[in-house]
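To the wet lab folks,

You asked to see what we're planning to order before we commit. Fair enough. Below is the target structure as tokens, and below that is the sequence we designed to fit it. If anything looks off to you, flag it before the synthesis order goes out.
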């Protein structure tokens, strides 16, 4: 991997990690309410999103921070949204779990397990009917793969040959339940293959592997070959809900083994072979300063006016 791309990947992964650590500090200080962490899944988000074009549409889930920031969302506006401020991407109405950024092609962040799977089929169909070169990208977890809508969505996408990239971030945990308690297989990609969809499982902690395979998948979809399925095998290093969940139910040996595979730490060692320690230190310092400014911006931003209560709502 060339130096420029490696630094770009590391910068995005480090930003995501520090952003979530900032959220955690705010939550522990009772300055924000709870949020769902994706800490440990940075390589999956950066690897996939970096392989997309500006026209591609993203639908994601409640662990969306990585996808948002990898796509180019501003940390300050994300933090403002988390704090319910008017300067947030959704005017403070979404909180931490529903942030959407239409101008960046992030159309949906769903907290309903599998909610994005129920909508991406329609998005994919519309893109095909419009005959665009854009694709729809759907992020979801292993828990959503146990929902009936998972099978409905994949079946229709296969039959209709829709331009959809399914990305299952298999982080081993479904809220407080280990995936081994809810499924008999280790790799969800095996289910996708049953619908005649090209499907692979990749090391979700290796940003280079995720990027390379996503590029291959995207090229296949754009060649009008129908949907593609990528399972990024990774691990959520924090609890389900911050800051209350202390992970007492997690096997300590399993957690420690995955900590040794921390994608941010491991990739930094690779980047050090291409860039100097001074370059990386400067990059990290700039991100930490950006997040300090983002926190200040969010705290100083106003709350929405009362008249916002009747705006941006559907009326029948």
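Sequence we intend to order:
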């Amino acid at each position: 991997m060339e130096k420029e791309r490696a630094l770009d990947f590391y910068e995005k992964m480090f930003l995501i990690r520090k952003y979530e650590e900032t959220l955690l500090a705010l939550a522990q200080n009772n300055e924000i309410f709870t949020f769902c962490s994706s800490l440990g899944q940075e390589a999956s988000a950066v690897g996939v999103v970096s392989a997309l074009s500006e026209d591609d549409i993203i639908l994601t889930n409640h662990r969306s921070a990585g996808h948002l920031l990898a796509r180019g969302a501003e940390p300050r506006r994300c933090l403002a949204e988390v704090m319910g401020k008017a300067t947030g991407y959704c005017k403070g109405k979404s909180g931490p779990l529903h942030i959407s950024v239409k101008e960046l092609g992030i159309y949906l962040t769903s907290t309903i397990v599998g909610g994005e799977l129920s909508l991406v089929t329609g998005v994919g169909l519309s893109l095909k009917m419009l005959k665009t070169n854009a694709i729809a990208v759907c992020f979801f977890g292993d828990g959503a793969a146990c929902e009936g809508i998972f099978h409905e969505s994949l079946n229709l996408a296969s039959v209709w040959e829709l331009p959809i990239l399914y990305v299952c971030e298999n982080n081993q945990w479904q809220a407080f339940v280990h995936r081994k308690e809810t499924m008999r297989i280790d790799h969800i990609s095996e289910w996708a293959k049953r619908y005649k969809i090209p499907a692979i499982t990749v090391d979700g902690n290796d940003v280079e592997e995720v990027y390379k395979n996503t590029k291959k998948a995207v090229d296949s979809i754009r060649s009008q070959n129908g949907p593609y399925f990528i399972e990024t095998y990774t691990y959520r290093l924090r609890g389900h809900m911050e800051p209350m969940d202390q992970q007492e139910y997690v096997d300590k040996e399993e957690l420690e083994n995955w900590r040794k595979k921390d994608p941010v730490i491991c990739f930094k060692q690779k980047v050090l072979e291409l860039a100097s320690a001074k370059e990386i230190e400067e990059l990290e310092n700039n991100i930490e300063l950006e997040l300090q400014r983002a926190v200040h911006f969010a705290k100083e931003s106003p709350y929405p006016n009362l008249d916002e209560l009747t705006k941006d709502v559907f009326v029948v």
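Structural context that might help your review: The chain has one domain: 3-26+37-297. The radius of gyration is 19 Å.

Thanks,
Computational group
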